[in-house]
Amino acid sequence: MNKQIIHTQDAPKAVGPYSQAVAISGSKTIYLSGQIGLEPHSGELVSESFEGQVKQAFANMLAVVQAAGGAKENVVKLTLFLTDLGKFATVNTIMSDVFPEPYPARSTVGVASLPKGAQFEVEAIVVL
Known about the structure:
This is Reactive intermediate/imine deaminase. The chain is an alpha+beta fold. It has one domain: CATH 3.30.1330.40. 23% of the residues lie in helices and 31% in strands. It has 2 helices and 6 strands; from the N terminus they run βββαβαββ. The strands form 2 sheets. Strands 3-6-4-5 form a 4-stranded mixed beta sheet. Strands 1-2 form a two-stranded antiparallel sheet. Helix 1 runs parallel beside helix 2. The protein starts with a strand and ends with a strand.
């Protein structure tokens, strides 16, 4: 995969562990559905704690990435959904532990609610 990180001084710098944009040439693109913090076998939320749900949602997402034949380095774009944008810094800390630099591009959206009462959801675009 030929991954090029796009950065310009003419737009605001990233306010967290993500790149402004990522370009890929000669590749296969996979669009992952959103993942929440469900325990894979029980289908129940792994925890009521926000941090536990974020970590499990990322683990679930990475399991799908691996099933698609990729690795976390193949994730080029994330969309994060939070029911409380006041926990944005917590997500940044966890995400920077999950993803190495250069970070994928990312958007973060505040939402009123998520399935099963989850507090966090992540979806991804993967390029192989």
